[in-house]
């Protein structure tokens, strides 16, 4: 009936005013829905993400605080740098190499007093190898090694000497540091190699037509018990997590504060004075006495002061992991270890990350090895050394 009578409506000025008012209200409502978007981290594909962690400005994800022990150093003196990474209020999945000692220091900028950038004599580099990791679904995914940066956590990193990479002549320099921090959406925890082999055996067993009924079930139960046993045995070990390359969420550019370092020239000895020389107490002659030949007592005293490096007593070779051989993975594993006064290896740390169980195999071999301890002044001492293990399919794998 409304549409039937619409033709009989009389258009009056009052009617027109009401229509205009309703149109203004409707337009205002539409404009009100056009809200200003919150700044978001951009992904590699250019799409804006929507999670809480990504609506923060990139610099709010974490803060970098650069420092050094003092402001003045003598030429050729080691200049150490300390970096504190203060995470924000979100747990982040980031690449391991970004927070490794050298990886975090790859983007150092050094400028002199004239504002000129100092070129490094050696670049600071850190490898970021990729590998295929099997997930719980059995599918292999291309990944990089990851690290879970907990909310509000502090990461302390140190570069022992910037002079190894930058030859700093006497003068004043400004040092800053930047990190392109990648953030990922998901992670995969790699299972122990023994567990992976057992799961592969279970998959073959399930497809074996020769086993039926109770016999197959008993065999599968045995494998499951073995898996539980291995998981319990290695429950306290730190498990490597990996980040699927395709799950990259975005990047945040982090820039540290600036610090000023002054390199002073080496002090020269006063005129007429010979450094490191002790004058004779009763030398009345104007001429220098000829040097006396060393006697046996002096020789023994010098020998006692000499330092002797640790040596292998029992050397155990590393076993090549089956998964690494199958993947034809080769390379050099470098371990940092403290050889104590008894010749026992302590505090073993892998300085490389080849994966495929190579680091674990090298560590296991080093734990079983024994040493003659280092000597200083005729007494055994504890010392930190680096030991390489070479894994090569054609040439064997001897440390």
Topology:
Layout (H helix, E strand, L loop, with lengths): L12 H20 L29 E6 L4 E3 L6 E7 L4 E4 H4 L8 E4 L18 E5 L5 E10 L4 E6 L11 E14 L3 E2 L3 H14 L6 H21 L7 E4 L3 E8 L3 E6 L31 H10 L1 E2 L2 E4 L7 H5 L4 E9 L5 E6 L7 H11 L1 E3 L1 E3 L2 E3 L1 E9 L8
Parallel strand pairs: 2-13
Antiparallel strand pairs: 1-3, 3-8, 4-7, 5-9, 6-7, 7-11, 9-12, 9-13, 10-11, 14-19, 15-18, 16-17, 16-21, 19-20
Helix pairs in contact: 3-4
Task: Characterize the structure shown.
The protein is of the alpha+beta class and 399 residues long. It has three domains: 52-189 and 240-263, Immunoglobulin-like (Sandwich), CATH 2.60.40.2970; 193-233; 307-391, TolA/TonB C-terminal domain, CATH 3.30.2420.10. The protein is 21% helix and 30% strand. It has seven helices and 21 strands. The strands form six sheets. Strands 2, 5, 9, 12 and 13 form a five-stranded mixed beta sheet that branches. Strands 4, 6, 7, 10 and 11 form a five-stranded antiparallel beta sheet that branches. A three-stranded antiparallel beta sheet has the order 1-3-8, with no helix packed on it. Strand 16 and strand 17 form a beta hairpin. Helix 3 packs antiparallel against helix 4. The longest helix is centred in the middle third of the chain and has 21 residues, at 213-233. The protein is flat and about 85 Å long.
């Amino acid at each position: 009936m409304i549409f039937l009578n619409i033709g009989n409506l009389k258009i009056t000025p009052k009617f027109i005013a009401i229509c205009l008012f309703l149109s203004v209200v409707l337009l205002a409502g539409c404009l009100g829905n056009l809200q200003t978007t919150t700044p978001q981290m951009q992904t590699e594909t250019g799409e804006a993400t929507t999670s809480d962690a990504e609506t923060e400005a990139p610099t709010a994800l974490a803060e970098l605080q650069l420092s050094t022990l003092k402001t003045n150093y003598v030429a050729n003196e080691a200049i150490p740098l300390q970096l504190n990474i203060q995470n924000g209020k979100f747990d982040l999945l980031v690449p391991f190499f970004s927070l490794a000692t050298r990886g975090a220091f790859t983007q150092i900028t050094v400028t002199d007093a004239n504002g000129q950038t100092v070129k490094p004599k050696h670049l600071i580099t850190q490898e970021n190898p990729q590998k295929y990791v099997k997930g719980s679904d059995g599918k292999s995914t291309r990944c990089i090694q990851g690290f879970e940066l907990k909310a509000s956590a502090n990461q302390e990193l140190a570069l022992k000497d910037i002079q190894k990479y930058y030859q700093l002549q006497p003068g004043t320099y400004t040092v800053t540091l930047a990190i392109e921090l990648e953030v990922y959406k998901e992670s995969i925890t790699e299972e122990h190699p023994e567990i992976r082999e057992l799961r592969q055996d279970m998959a073959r067993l399930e497809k074996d037509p020769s086993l039926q009924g109770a016999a197959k079930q008993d065999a599968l139960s045995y494998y499951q018990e073995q898996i539980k046993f291995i998981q319990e045995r290695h429950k306290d070990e730190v498990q490597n997590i990996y980040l699927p390359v395709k799950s990259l969420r975005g990047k945040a550019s982090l820039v540290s504060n600036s610090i000023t370092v002054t390199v002073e020239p080496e002090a020269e000895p006063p005129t007429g004075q010979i450094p490191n020389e002790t004058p004779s107490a009763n030398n009345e002659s104007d001429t220098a006495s000829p040097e006396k030949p060393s006697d046996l007592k002096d020789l023994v005293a010098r020998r006692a002061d000499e330092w002797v490096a640790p040596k292998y007593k029992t050397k155990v070779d590393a076993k090549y992991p089956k998964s690494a051989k199958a993947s034809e993975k080769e390379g050099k594993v470098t371990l940092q270890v403290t050889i104590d006064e008894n010749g026992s290896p302590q505090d073993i740390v892998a300085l490389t990350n080849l994966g495929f169980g190579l680091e674990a195999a090298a560590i296991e071999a080093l734990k079983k090895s024994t040493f003659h301890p280092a000597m200083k002044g005729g007494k055994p001492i504890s010392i930190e050394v680096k030991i390489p293990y070479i894994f090569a399919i054609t040439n064997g794998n001897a440390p």
